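W.,

You were right to be curious about this one. When I first looked at the sequence I had no strong expectations either way, so I just let the prediction run and decided to look at it fresh. Below is the sequence, 752 residues in total, followed by the output.
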Amino acid sequence: MDTVDEINQKEIAEEKMINDAFQELLHNYLQTKHRKRVEIITKAFNFANQAHKGIKRRSGEPYILHPIAVANIVCNEIGLGSTSICSALLHDVVEDTDYTIEDIENIFGHKIATIVNGLTKIAGGIFGDKASAQAENFRKLLLTMSDDIRVILIKIADRLHNMRTLNSMPLNKQYKIAGETLYIYAPLANRLGLNKIKTELENLSFKYEHPKEYQELEEKLSATAAARDKVFQEFTTPIRTQLDKMELKYHIIARVKSVYSIWNKMQNKHVPFEEIYDILAVRIIFEPKSLDEELNDCFDIYVAISKIYKPHPDRLRDWVSHPKANGYQALHVTLMGNNGEWIEVQIRSQRMDDIAEQGFAAHWKYKEGGDGSEDEGELEKWLHTVKEILDDPVPDAIDFLDAIKLNLFASEIFAFTPKGELKTMPQNSTALDFAFMLHTDIGMHCIGAKVNHKLVPLSYKLQSGDQVEILTSKSQRIQPEWEAYATTAKARAKIASVIRKENKIYEDIGKTFFNGFLNKEGFTFSTSIIDKLLHFHHLINENDLYLAIGKKEIILGEADKDAIKGKQNKSWRKLLSLSFGSNKEKEPEEAEKQEAKEIIDTKDILKLTEDSIQKKYIMASCCHPIPGDDVLGYIDENGKVIIHQQECPVAAKLKSSYGNRILATTWDTGKTLTFLVYVQINGIDGLGVLNDITQVLSRRLNVNIQKLTIESEAGIFTSKVQLYVHDVDDVRLICNELLRLPNIKAATRVES
């Protein structure tokens, strides 16, 4: 036990640590161009320091260091001023102490109190019984953000510091926080133009979700750094000579693709690290001769470097004349280097570079006034769309987050109305999206469109430069298939809202029919009956069942009576026993009681042993996890634990929406169970290719092939094989052995 002197020494050391951190914050603030309101920042620090006194973070350090760190990010990395810094210092006071928002308002004024209120987690539900705390808090955040953008900027800073210190959290919390960061906060940072922060959030999320892959890619990037540096120096030497002749003030930097972006491309393209060719890009940042000449200077540089290296004809991206919706401006050109590889060059002024790194906050640096959140055209349009979604929120937490996430697009196209008015739309927008973007009533009554004076269906995908005329009819009403046509958040939210209202009517009808059926056949309503019918009809929840009955897609009859009486195959547990070879089976009621007890007794980490897989857990059909995959467990509404791959899109939604139900999991199966996987093989077609593949799989590796398909076109074949393996090491061995065949150019595991 520590002595009194040792305790005093610790307290003195902590006080010094806290004061040093605050002095660093003040020093950084005084280096900015904002008004020097040191007094109110000091007042906020003293108040927060006193409120959090004696409280420690999980890492053991004084809690006040977290608000100071967030304030530093707000000041240094986002570029906000005193109001935001004070709000960052105070952001946890109301949530973690006895102080109220009224106290904050009395001491610091209405504006800071409003921002702090937006940053404070809420109690009570917005979505009702099926509430997700994450989605509720996020909705509140957006509600306040739509009045003051600084709320979301400070929240992103808060999340960034949490991610930087995530290693002190237990594994299941790491998965939850990393998952919602990747699903919501990184796209938000991107949408607000915070490119540097977006990249760091993605990399940190990836690091905690896939530590092994992260480490491997870091090592490969490090090992290839010298070769990249040599290419950069050789490529940029003649460019520097040319820019010097133009008497420009400039600097050239190498931009290396982030670890997460590389991994993402490897997954999407099914290629190894060695086949990612755009890891290096070159960025030219210049000081324009005058602001009026900024755009001309960009194109002058482009013309100059295009004389040195041949440009790719289809890869000129003009974000200078038409900035992205998040404010990003630059001219991107792809040039053929002397090494025979394409290299992207990004041409930006210093102002454009600041905005690319600090987003909309950087606009304020170039405007009169300091810490104000003045209107920015594209930002205001985006916030207006967010408000519309919030006005008509979908009841399901995941649907709500999806609706918001849909609106975080960064790639745009430019379309025109018949009168020539320019409209910015997300990439992949359809004619139906365009109709809803013009006005909700136009969307709800549209029957078709004319694009460039030609009649097209509502599902037509728009291209940049299209001129779009929407055709309407008063008798038209929203159709269910429109949900598949719409891609933007606004259109999908409105369509879903109308369909929900109609479905509610059908659900009520279906419920009445269902209760009548039970009474007639002498059954008493129970959740067990619902579960049996859901399984029998392959439906997800009770409302889906009522809806299908109400729409007469299901006519209740003898087969349903048999399913209720248990004359059909046993439930999911039977399916598991067939898949994994278990010959033990419990009655459903007994199994549910046992499973509920197991979940209550579960700690942070669940071991997926051979026995537990057979008895307790369900392998998700959406991603087919196998031993060796990075996985997590999700406790569903029925108390069952479903195992997903970490990168599974469904798991990403679950982590961001139902993080409190996420369990960290580890495999411990040995090589006794087999799991179904899909391997895709590509190569050059030739006599005996199929025989070579089956020889390797069946004879050399003794793999049990479930199904094999092969297609050939223009001398290139694609084959997909379903086979049983023990773990990811087996998959790796299979792919490596297949790649030894002369005609095979790629062999990789795919989802299905």
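Here's what jumped out at me. The CA atoms of residues 608 and 667 lie 5 Å apart. And, maybe more interesting for your project: Residues 4-194 form a domain with the Hypothetical protein af1432 fold (CATH 1.10.3210.10).

Coffee later to discuss?

I.
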